Structures are given as structure tokens and as C-alpha cells.
Amino acid sequence: MTTFVLVHGASHGSWCWDKVVPLLESQGHDVIAVDLPGNTYGAFDVPPSQVTLRSYADHVCKVLDQLDEPVVLVGHSLGGLTITQAAELRPDKIRSLVYLTALLFRDGTAMMPVEARDSESIRAGLQRDSWTVSEDLATVVFHEESLKNRFYNDCSDGDIEWAKPMLVPQPTGPLIDQVQTTAQNFGRVSKVYIECEIDGALPLDYQRELQANGPCDRIITMGTGHSPFLSAPLELVAHLVSI
Fold first, then answer.
1. Count of domains in the chain?
2. Are 72 and 4 in contact (CB under 8 A)?
3. pLDDT band at residue 116 under the 50/70/90 scheme
4. How far apart (Å, rounded) are the C-alpha atoms in residues 145 and 165?
5. Sheet with 71-76, side-by-side order of all strands
6. In this structure, what CATH number is given to the domain that contains residue 50?
7. How many CB atoms within 10 Å of residue 53?
8. Which domain holds residue 48?
9. pTM score, two decimals?
């Protein structure tokens, strides 16, 4: 059987995979859902201001280093950058990368490019209508009124109310840090992209632009919003098992 390592996206935590983990385990697979530094209250002694894309990737690499066999490494949304950077650092530890409606960037690309690392440039680069930037520029908080349309547009009201209290301020370091990859490492790892057709956070056209950055060995289409781990866990698990 396979070991799946599941990596959450912005403002989320390992809890977002709670429907997926038991379904995979019931089919005999091993599953590790990680919590990234700075994204879980009380789990890490790491101030948000010190969180970087590299610290995300290093944390995943520590998980991979404890395992004997290569894994299927799944990243959701912003988690796509984490799995990309982890694959650069540990290509032999990964059987396949799975981008679940996730960011898949070329070398030297950041989610939110900034002209310089001074506070004025960072603040300008982080400005968006959908979130508020903290005074110290260490985190962003998504506006509550945007959450349903952005993250949970096809989720039940119960799932939305369950998820909202667990969302945390998102550290800004991973948003502005560039991915650093090479053909020798990241380039040789198999990649699968699971696109979500009615995603309110990453529109389908944008997901298809991202797929070309792989390139991806396989594209899977789901007719869901941004969070199929909540709205369609059975279908998502079937796709993961097929990979």
C-alpha cells in the first residue's frame, strides 16, 4: 500500500483532511496530515514573522525523512508551493506529487512578488481586497464574508461553520518567497494535477496555466469548489488511490 502525506493550504491545518484520512486508511493506506509551522495555534514555537517557504518545506522533509518508502505528497492550494520546495530537497523520497487545485510555479516565482524586502514594498505587494494585512506585516487574515465564495462555495453549511473557527492568520513569508527548483531534483519527480472546475479561489483557467509549469503527467478534473476534501471526499479519495 501507499503512504500519503497531505499538506494543507493557506490559513488551514491538518484538520482540513479529517474526512479524507479515515477513507484512505480504510483501504489500507498510511496517511500523515501535517500541520505547518505558524499555521496551528500552540503547535509550534515559531512566531509568524519567522515563517518562510523554506521552513514549510523543511518541516515536510522532516516527515519524509522518518519514512522508509517514497510517498505520494499531496498539496492543496498554497500547499503546492510547499510540496514543490520539498520535492527539490528530497526528490528520492517522493513517488508522486499531487497538486490539488494548487499553486505550481516555475523556479524563481512567488505567489505575491515584492520589489524588495523593505516594509513599504512588502505592504504594497500584499494588498488585496480579500484580506487584511497585520501591522507588522507578519500575517494576513481573510475577510469572513469572503470565505464561503473563496474556499467553501460547494460545501454544506455545517462544514463551513465547522471550518471557520479553525482558520488562522496566514504567515506572509511563504506568500512572498520564491520557489527554488532545478530540473535535476524537482524536475524528475512525477506530477499529477487535480483541477476543480468551480473553484472560487483559483479559477479553472488559472489552474490550467499552472499545470503547464509542471509539466504534469496526468490531469484529473473534479466538478467541485476549492475544498473537495470537505465537499467530495469520497471522489477525492478515489482519485488519490488511482494515483
1. 1
2. yes
3. confident
4. 14
5. 30-33, 3-7, 71-76, 94-100, 191-196, 218-222
6. 3.40.50.1820
7. 23
8. 3-242
9. 0.96
Residue 189: predicted pLDDT: 98
Predicted local confidence at residue 117, as pLDDT:
87
Rounded mean pLDDT, 132-160: 96
- Grid cell 480504510 is found at 26
For residue 73 the three cell numbers come to: 505528497
Asked if residues 227 and 155 have their Cβ atoms less than 8 Å apart, the reply is yes
What distance in Å separates the CA atoms of residue 190 and residue 70, rounded to the nearest whole number? 12
Cell numbers at 153, concatenated: 462555495
